Amino acid sequence: MKNAFKFDRERLLLGIAGPVLALAVAFALSVLVLVASGLDPIEPFQIMFSSLQEQDVQVLIVNQWATYYLAALAVAVGFRMNLFNIGVDGQYRLAAVLAAIVGVKVSAPGPLHILIIILTAIVVGSIWAGVAGVLKTARGVSEVVSTIMLNAIAGNLIAWMVLKDQFGEQAEGSNDLTTGLIDESGWFPGIKVSDFAGEIYGFVFIAAAVGVVYWYVLSRTRFGFDLRASGASESAAAASGVDAKRMVLVSMLISGAVAGLAGMPELLGGTHTYSSNFPVGVGFTGITIALLGRNNPIGVAFAALLIAFLDKASSQLNLEGYPAEIAKIMQGLIVLSVVISYEQVRRYGQRRQQHRVGEELAAQAKKNRKEVSA
Amino acid sequence: MRRLTQMAVASIATAALAFTVTGCGDDSGDGDSGKGGADKGAALAYDIGGRGDLSFNDAAAAGFDQAKKEFGWEGMEVEPNEGETDADKIQRLTDLAKKGYNPVIAVGFVYSKAVGEVSKKFPKTNFGIIDDPVEGKNIANLVFNEEQASYLAGVAAAKVTKSKTVGFIGGVETPLIKKFEAGYVQGVKDTDSSVKVEVKYLTQPPDFSGFADPAKGKSAAEGQLDAGADVIYHAAGGAGNGAIEAAATAGKWAIGVDSDQYNAPTLAKFKDKILASATKNATGAVYNLIKSVHDKKPQSGEQRYGLKGDGVGLTESNPAYTAMTDVVEAVNAAKAKIVSGEITVKTEP
Fold first, then answer.
1. Residue B17: inside a domain
2. CA B76 to the chain's CA centroid
3. Which is nearest to A86 in space by CA: A6, A140, A160, A147?
4. Which member of A129, A157, A275, B42 lies 3.0 to 4.6 Å from A178 by CB, making a disulfide possible if both were Cys?
5. How confident is the model at residue A7 (pLDDT cuts 50, 70, 90)?
6. Closest in B10, B22, B25 to A211, CB measured
7. CA distance B47 to B286
8. Is the Cβ pair B88, A60 closer than 8 Å?
9. Residue A265: is it exposed, middle or buried by C-beta count within 10 angstroms (0-12/13-18/19+)?
């Protein structure tokens, strides 16, 4: 028992070592980039951290966190199953636009209206991801290829749907197309911070709850075990009676459902409509975050917070005369260092484990020899 | 027991973040600290692409630069991040107003909601927005009749075409670019109803690479040339450079957009085949707004730039164009009719 606990702690340390090492390397490289471009290497970080004290920036970060967290969890579900769902972006956008359209067409009392919108997003997201799942299980099409293509198809479908001939609306004199404004009964209530800083989207708490559910399902249920087992070794999982094809399909459906939710903080809390202004690329940021957070619900939560912070604090850089791209470069460096440092830490852990097992075996052998000789 | 604590950590860490982080901050703005006056100068918030897009943003930047030189302040230029939300834009404009920049000018309708909200928080700061009708006492809406200039481009195209086929290449299929298409097609048809117009959009929103990728413009133009077009009008920003290259290389006419592309250094190789350009004077519009604030007589409400007053127009810098007197005459006649109101140009195809 004592041994098991110790082993856990070591694993935890190794688990934290990866991201910490990655961030340190990314930070060092960013400083190098700044020095190389003839800029002050430290001040940008000071500016970014000092902007954290401002309430409106905090609210922005927290709201963005919800979107990123959900997108990253969607990616993480796939990763756990060894599925690379690059299509989170398309699933998220298609779900958002259809949820927005349904939200406009339907009128219902408050909670029901919101529920209908959310369910639409979940269903659309999972159907769109399910297409890739079916292609993989029935035809063996790589989900990497199919989800990228589905992203493009989703983009064109959305462009078609927001045309005025379909569901689009264009305000008089405006050059923007929207899907129309959802009635106020379909707005998710938020927590007002102040007139100036705006409000925290209520959906932030739903996102946190989804994180808890993710943790529970993956680590405390039979299904989660099957999923992780199939991800670790498909043949071993099959040998213990797991239907691999079913697992692929189900995890794609779940991944898509969570991806569908990713658009909800913004749709239900912020814009209340889908327009060409709706954020794109969220699904790709989700991949970064899932990698950085190692698919662990708490790790992903912190990673999402970090990326949201880099995003929001970087706009301050622009105002102080630094290029905001510094933050983008940092994000890129983080991804690179994450991949490298995780591999390093994994190898180190493996070596230590081998070493220890070797030691234990040697001790055992020694003991055996002694017993024999005795 | 362990299960409980792990669960507790999971939920506390995620949910409580929201509370703790926001609980401890100062209010970063006191609402209305807009220090009027032109001491800090103007601020320009670009659309995606920013300075250097050789098109729309650059035109606005030129007006900004002109004012900067004349009034002797530094000013501020900011660019958006990809994938940001309205809330980010609100924060960006708030920061600019808070720092005392006046006027704060937003380039493009993507700032519509942000300008609407921030202008209420800073009643003493003047805001400008290009291409959007959002209303407010301290908002100046810089809007253009792109369709009128495009109509003239259509007249010229219908006059010079020999194959009775002309092309239109739109960068991204947005309502704004559809105005260009509508005016162009109407201009062509009003001049010669037997001329066929090939219409092609490079990308659909939110994929805005159709304004940036010359390779896309080139292949679209080649497609239209194959279909028999001998004049191609593009409204595709930087991507249109590829369309001009394709048309000029094939010895056919190209019509430029936004700025006078006959005189664009990057297109010097193809200038002989750039018949004319349908321009949009964003430079002047931005400068006028900044000057009005400087003169303490800030513009507010709709500032419309049309053929009347030369807010939009068709350039006459190519001598090959001015040599075709019948074409120039037809264009000038059409212009007079639009200015007098005899012709109303459609804004939707």
1. no
2. 19
3. A147
4. A275
5. low
6. B10
7. 14
8. yes
9. buried
- Asked if B55 contacts B259 with a C-beta cutoff of 8 angstroms, the reply is yes
B50 and B102 inside one domain: yes
Task: Say whether B11 and A54 touch across the interface (CB within 8 A).
Answer: no
B257: enclosing H helix or E strand: strand B253-258
- The better pLDDT of the pair A6, B36 is held by A6
Share the mean pLDDT of chain B. Answer: 85
Q: Are residues B241 and B162 in the same domain?
A: yes
Residues B267 and B151 in one domain: yes
Same domain, B110 and B129: yes
Q: Residue A57 has which token pair?
A: 């920036």
CA distance B97 to chain A (A): 11
CATH T-level assignment (fold) for domain A64-314: ABC transporter involved in vitamin B12 uptake, BtuC (1.10.3470)
Report the amino acid identity of residue A280. V
Give the angle A74-A75-A79 at the CA atoms, nearest 5°: 125
pLDDT in tens, B5-60: 444 444 444 444 433 333 344 444 433 333 444 468 999 998 866 776 667 788 88
Within-domain flag for B160: yes
Per the structure, the count of domains in chain B is 2
Cβ(B200)–Cβ(B168) below 8 Å: yes
Q: Residue A279: its chain B contacts at CB < 8 A?
A: 83-85
- Does the pTM surpass 0.80? The reply is yes
**Out of B11, B21, B88, whose CB is closest to A212?**
B11
Q: Is B62 found in the same domain as B165?
A: no
* Closest CA of chain A from B21, distance in Å: 7
Q: Within this chain, do residues B126 and B163 fall inside the same structural domain, yes or no? A: no
| Residue B89: domain span | 32-144+281-311
Query: What would the pLDDT profile of B55-71 be if each residue is shown by its tens digit?
Result: 778 888 999 999 999 99
E-assigned strand segments in chain A: 191-194, 198-200
B153: closest CA among B66, B232, B41, B236?
B232
Judgement on whether residues B329 and B183 belong to the same structural domain of the protein: yes
Nearest CA-CA distance, residue B26 and chain A, Å: 6
Choose among B31, B78, B83: nearest Cβ to A279: B83
**Has the ipTM of the complex gone over 0.95?**
no
Pairing between strand B312-314 and B274-280?
antiparallel
Q: Spell out the domain ranges in chain A.
A: 1-39+322-360, 64-314
C-alpha to C-alpha distance for A205 and B59, rounded to whole angstroms? 44
Does the distance separating the beta carbons of A312 and B91 come in below 8 Å?
Answer: yes
pLDDT score for B16: 41
The dihedrals phi and psi of B108, each to the nearest 5 degrees, come to 110, 155
Contact list in A for residue B18 (CB cut-off 8 A) is 62, 65, 200, 204-205, 208
